[in-house]
Fold:
Amino acid sequence: MIGTQTKGTIMVLLSAVFFGLLPFFAIKTYAEGFDVSNLLLYRFSFAFVLIGLFCIYKKINIRINKKQFFLLLILAVVGTMMTTYTLFLSYQYISSGLASTLHFVYPIITIVFAGIIYKEKFTLKKLTALFLSIIGIALLSLGGGAAINATGVLWALVSGLFYAIYILCMANPELRKISPYSVAFWIFGISAILFFGKCFFTNNINTNPGILSIFYIVNLSFWSTFLSVVLFYMGMKHTGPGNASLLSTLEPLTGVMVGVFVFNDVMDVKSSLAILLILTSVFMVMQNNKKPNYRMLFIKLTPRRLRRA
Structure:
């Protein structure tokens, strides 16, 4: 029998693989004439339809209370809208490899605050795993020879900060009471509305997408949104936010594999060493079978009347 910790680890790793396809689909969609806001509008709209149909088919209860809605609103605005918008924006200024490297400041932030808020232990093994993963991800992005754009660097770093907040919010005990599909349903729905409002008020809605752009967006919505978010949330319930953030460093490897098998990139010694370091860090985290003791996140930020809901 597979233990819950192992199941959670597998789910987070699969989520990282699917998330790793995100730059590929995004860049392909940009080439078809989409901007960041329209891409995200279509992405979350399609994902919302997918999760809605799934919930109807499985007869999943999507009802939530006021406290849960408040937390999901934070997730949608800070974690989903701002994270994806700033990360996708960085792709327009710097390479996806460099953007991914800078975005991965979030495991550091997550681990520190997971220790403060959830009392998750910051062990030597976890510190070593974090160090190895950062070196590995850095190696994947070095050597491109392209000029570094300060604007792209800033957006990528900001996206990492927002994603750390997203992970910490996802670990809130209040959200663990409801189905991960219900969580995804509300996050995708709120995010779609937010991006629709942004595009509508700027008079910038793409109403004539091409067949190829729809193909890329549907794949982005299914693999890198619907499946990846649900798997990450389900897995994090068993691994904890700190471990989940470290396991998700497998994400850049997907980009490397896509480059090798799709774009015929050469796997050099540097990339091989980077893969070895990241896989080592992942295996180190997988050995950590202690489940963290959670406490309420952002309880001071939650209105008192919502706490009693």
